[in-house]
Amino acid sequence: MLQKRNFFCNFVAEMIEILKSRNIRITDFRLVVLDILARHKTAISMEQIEEELGDFDRITLYRTIKTFIEKGVVHEILMPGNVKKLALCDDGCQDEHHHEHLHFQCNSCNEIYCVDIPRFPKVNLPGFKIDRMEIQAFGTCQQCLS
Amino acid sequence: MLQKRNFFCNFVAEMIEILKSRNIRITDFRLVVLDILARHKTAISMEQIEEELGDFDRITLYRTIKTFIEKGVVHEILMPGNVKKLALCDDGCQDEHHHEHLHFQCNSCNEIYCVDIPRFPKVNLPGFKIDRMEIQAFGTCQQCLS
DNA sequence: TCATTTATGCAATAGTGTTGCAAATATAAT
DNA sequence: ATTATATTTGCAACACTATTGCATAAATGA
Question: What's the rounded Cα separation, in Å, for the pair A141 and A40?
Fold first, then answer.
């Protein structure tokens, strides 16, 4: 099944590098899934990945995503209403998921953008020792505004 | 089944008031679910509610929670790792869910606290019009620190 | 090329959430 | 209090999401 896809060879090199750096074995399936994730600027759902895979094995996909999440290749975004999406991590989060970033959901197109913001706000909360923060934001994206 | 539970009558009066103010019909089932939520200081999962209900109907519980969420009685908290919890809303969010609050998950005890913070940080994100924000914070809570 | 480790694909199963419908209950009006 | 109406409940069935065990296949390192 995997031979069907057209690979952009330059991307493949990068993706192999990503997997190697995280000690994940290089397999066709993983490269295809990584490729799909890399082609999207916004976070995508399991369903979208399944559609783009076409002929595939759901169980292997679940295991692939699980591995990617554990090894810091991908992170999971949960939004109200049982919305679960996936996005590639940026280089920052090698071993652990150390995102201090923002997930923006557009109320109009429903796309979820994973945005890095330069100055992450600091919050001082008496009684709690905060190690890490994430922000979920809701509103309208550029495309839908114009 | 519902007669089994012991109600604190003074709480019942408050809970009936909550339901009435949101135009939700008063039923035993809803009062019991509300009671369970009110007794917890931290957010609780569907599973926890099911356990505390004991003898109950799963479908009715799902519908009850759905109604509570729609009418602004309860809000849903989503955390990494497929963690989904529920917590009572405070009085602020009558019709729509206008929480500008923070969800804190303790890495040690895993409890999720729903905290209102006085000065909610503002984020300016070029290309996005932000209407509403939520913060997810991770760290250690008071109990686990001492 | 071979030995070892890890990944894949299939079957079965568990968990999570929804829909349709008849009976039961809550509310509002009499 | 009683009735009429609208809503909720509980059951059965079902759809979707995710996991486990195991034999086969493939990837890595020697």
Answer: 16
CB-closest option in B128, B136, B138 to A139: B128
Domains along chain B?
Answer: 2-145 (1.10.10.10)
Judged by C1' against the alpha carbon of B46, the nearest nucleotide is C16
B124 CA from D16 C1′ (Å): 38
Can you tell me the distance from the alpha carbon of A59 to that of A72, in angstroms, rounded to the nearest whole number?
Answer: 20
User: Can you point out the beta strands (E) in chain B?
Assistant: 74-79, 83-88, 101-106, 112-116, 128-141
pLDDT digits (tens, 9 = 90+) for B88-139: 987 555 444 455 789 999 999 999 999 888 788 889 899 999 999 999 999 9
Which chain B residue lies closest to A81 (C-alpha atoms)? B76
Rounded distance between C-alpha atoms, residue B100 and residue B79, angstroms = 17
Give tens-digit pLDDT for B48-75: 999 999 888 999 999 999 999 999 999 9
Q: Can you spell out the DSSP letters for A7-18?
A: P-HHHHHHHHHH
E strands in A17-141? 74-79, 83-88, 101-106, 112-116, 128-141
The pair of structure tokens assigned to B43 is: 């957010």
Residues B80 and A98: beta-carbon distance below 8 Å = no
Helix or strand run (H / E) with residue A106: strand A101-106
Q: Strand pairing of A74-79 and A83-88?
A: antiparallel
